[in-house]
Each structure stands twice: as C-alpha cells, then as structure tokens.
Amino acid sequence: MAKREVITALDIGSSKVVFAVAEYVRDNEIATEIVSHGVYSCSGVSAGTVANMEVTAKAIEQALDSIRKGRYPTDDVIVNISGQHVESRCGRGLIAVGGEEITDVQIEMAKMAARQVDNLPSGYEVVSVIPRDFIVDGKNSIVSPKFMVAQRLEAEAYVCVANSQYLENINRVVNLAGLQIHKRGLVPSALVSALSVLTEDEKDVGAACIDIGHGVIDLAVFRKGAVLYSASVGLGGSSIIADVSNLFNISELNARHQIETIGVADAEYLDKNEAERVCSVESVSRNDSTLSKFTRGELADVISARLDDFFDWIKKQFEYVSSRFGLRIPSVIFTGGVSGLNRLAQRANKVLQVPVRIAQPCYPARIPAKLAKSEFSTVIGLLIYGINYLSNEEHRNIRNIKLSWIDRLNDWFDKLKWF
Fold this sequence. Notes:
Distance between the termini: 38 Å
Largest sheet: 6 strands, mixed
CATH topology of the domain at 199-358: Nucleotidyltransferase, domain 5
CATH class of the domain at 199-358: Alpha Beta
Structural class: alpha+beta
Mean pLDDT: 88
C-alpha cells in the first residue's frame, strides 16, 4: 500500500490567516484530500508586511485552534510571502558534464548554479528556485536532460528573491505562534495562487494569473508549463474600501458591505435607473447620527477610479514581460477575494484587451466546499506546491503520525512490569 503523507499550509493575508492540512499519495491526485482547515481574521498585516507581530501571531494561534490539533503536525508549515519585498529574477546555471551521461546529481548541480542571479539588491536573498527548462550543449527547451550524453548542461530557472529582514519577521511571527516553517517552505503567493487555478493548457500556452487580495495584488506569468515571472504590489481591496469610506464618510465595514452587495466595476454596466438609485448609509460623522447618501453610479465611479490604478500596474507588468521574454499575454485569470467584484471580468477585458476569466481553486480534485472559493486560492496553492516541489524525504508519513500515540501508550504499558 502506498504511504499517505501529510502537509500543512499557512496563508498569512492582509485580512485573515488560513490553515489547511492535506493528506495525499504522491503522484496520485485522486488520493489527495484536504482534511482540515482553519480561518481567522487578522489586522496585523499591511500590504503583505507584518505590521503588528503580536496581533498576527495571535490570529495564527486562533486559526490553528480551529483545526484538529494532535492528529496532524503543525510544526513544519509552508507559508506564503508577498508584497513589495518579494521579487522574481531569471537564473541560469552552467556545469561541465565532460561527455558523460547526465545524472540526477548533475541536474541538481545545474539547479544550484542557477541560484546565482545578477543584480541581486542589497539586503535580499534567494528564497526559491524553480527550473523552467534545460539547455544541453546549446540545444534549448530540454524538459528532462537525464540520461543524455553531453559536454555541458545549463539550467534556466525562475528565482524568487526577498528582503532578508522581511523574511526574518515572517519567521519570527510564525515562531511566536509556536510553529516552525519548513526549511524550503517560504513561497511567493503569486506562484501558488496560479498553481491552484490555472489549467494545464493555460500554463503551457501562456497566461497571467492575477490574485487581487485585501492588501496585495500578486501576478504570475506562466509559459510552457512553468512559471516565467512574478510580481506584487501593495494595492488591493483595502484600497477600494478606504476610498469609499473616505469619500462617503462611512465606516470601512459599511463601505465593504456596499462594495460587495451593490458595487460594480464601472458605472457603464448600470442602466439609468440603477445608476441613479440612492443608497443611505449611516455616517461616521461626530455630529448627530446622520445618513450619508450617494447613488449606485457614484459608488461605481469610486471603484472604477481605483481599478484604474490596478490596471495601470498590470499593464506595466505585461509590457515588461513582453520586452524581457517576448511574450504577449494571451489570457488573464483573476482570483482572490476582490475577483468577485461585479463585472470585473468585463472591465478587465476592455482595458487589457485579452480574454479574461474569474477562477476559484480547481486543484486538487476534491476541495471542501468552504475552500472552493477565490479567496482561498493561495492556501490551496501552497498545498499543491508542497506536494509537487518538495521531495518525498521532506514530508511526513501520515501513518506514522496517526499511530505515534499508540506507540507511546504501548511503551508506557511495557514499563509497567506488574508480573
């Protein structure tokens, strides 16, 4: 019988923290099952950066309390990183093979060589390296060079780099919550969100996955089945909420409710009657309790203006990808909590001039209904990353974990030599 393994993921977001635990059999998606999860609101993170260690650690503890402690390990978690302190680079490593057959060891050596990136900013370090393809004696686009005879082997890779102090703070806040991060368990949110929502065809032909969360927009571009580029910016749903709150003098809680219930990506998608419909919301004025009044069209205009900032940044990323990699983005997939905004896909299609779809996590096949939502794309993607990119030796055997308490009980009985 194949061994069942277990992996734990932690998504530290700008509005909430999410735990998810999966049991799986490697190379068998049917046998993958998300067996536990926990969600707790968090106000300690701003634009991807931990702004309040104590509040964030407490939120992590609360989310952890809601999953079944004891049965599953939570001391070796995979955690997302995001925001302005996380960037991507292109890595390229070359090793000599000397006319011999290429082995797994040499492939790993080429991957390690690809960690050396040019123009690494001061105070930054390499977090993860994912090979895109290999070059064998000058021949490009080799997916698997193993067993080939060659003089030299090169690896081209996607390299994630991040600010060292930012990484230290992520480690510290997780440690404060009583947990440990996996030795290779810091992963860019942009990458993992894409893993949970992009189809194999989209990853192969080329696509951009854009996760619009509460405090950060994460973008990842795939081509030929591999991640090509990623970027993040400190914009998101909180920016829209703040605009609506400030302009109409209402609380952020009420602003969020209005955006989610009657908000639309552009007033042009409203007919005249709907655009002129007046909304009355309790004001936060320090004077007598009053109502703030605005039309649905005015609300749409505020949302649309902030979306313009989002799209301007996205277009700049597309321009960079085109100039750097020669790829014109053929399709865009939006996910994340803000992707549920009414008419976002139509507005994005008009502005970006590419096919657009809104996506929820679709991998693995059996996702609990509560997690099959755009706002959970990151935590689901963290599990997929762990299963696909971390080796067998780096996972725990679920059978051993489940039976460990029985072993301890037996040991205790063995020590009671009554007869």
